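Late entry, evening session. Most of the bench is empty. Finally got around to the prediction I had been postponing all week. Sequence below, unchanged from the version circulated by S.P.
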Amino acid sequence: MNRIGFPVPETGSRTLIAEFSKGRYQVLLARAQDIPEFVEMGAADLGITGLDLILETNRKVKRLRDLDFGRCRLVVAVPDKSPTRDASQIEDGSTVATSFPRLTEEHFARLGKKVNIACVSGAAEVTPGIGLADVITDLTETGSTLKLNHLREIGVILDSKATLIANEKALAEKSARIEEVTSAIDSVIGAARKRYLMANVPRETMPNLENLLPGISGPTVMNIIGRDDMVAIHAVVNDDEVNGIIAVLKEIGGTGILICPIERMVL
């Protein structure tokens, strides 16, 4: 939100409404699980929450963008001592503890399994250890919490990430204003893995620069005052290619190489 021009203040409160552009925009901070409902009912026109919660709540909202953060997986896990190696091997009648009853029930139905769903509000990973469940489904990012609780992953229900959603009525009635926000978000996402490169290179290397630095529409080449043998180049490059490009530029006599982050990039 900060990078698209909505500098939301930090707060310890569970809810916060902040206004920007003289009230043109309002930002509501709320619990992730409440956001699909708020958007469906029109309390908010747009929302950002996890894909897992969007599918679990089954609210009628429009998915607009998958965002590049909040990655996690909804997995099936059993105690380390369990002989079960795959979710399809779980016995009928097993108790599954979860905070995602809808997604869990649908998953086991697809596997043709009849299980008992035990809904918990959190800490599903402790339920097998205290005898409340045989199996759990829970969100994990690295699997470290499962290991700490002597659990082993045996299946994936869903790969989740933060997702931008919209109220379907607002998409029709406030399309221009929504486009302003989504375009701003796109510009931040587009810039996240890009870098702005500047360097001075020998003029004789210009024929090879377009292959080395394709950029958005090719590198920009400018004359350097007082130097007929050198030109200045500017280009947008992928972050993971920067080190290799720097090495090649140095090999061909490049100097004054600068790499800068890009705040936003509008295509």
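Two things to note before I forget:
Residues 16-69+162-191 form a domain with the D-Maltodextrin-Binding Protein; domain 2 fold (CATH 3.40.190.10).
The chain has three domains: 16-69+162-191, 72-159, 193-261.
Will write this up properly tomorrow.
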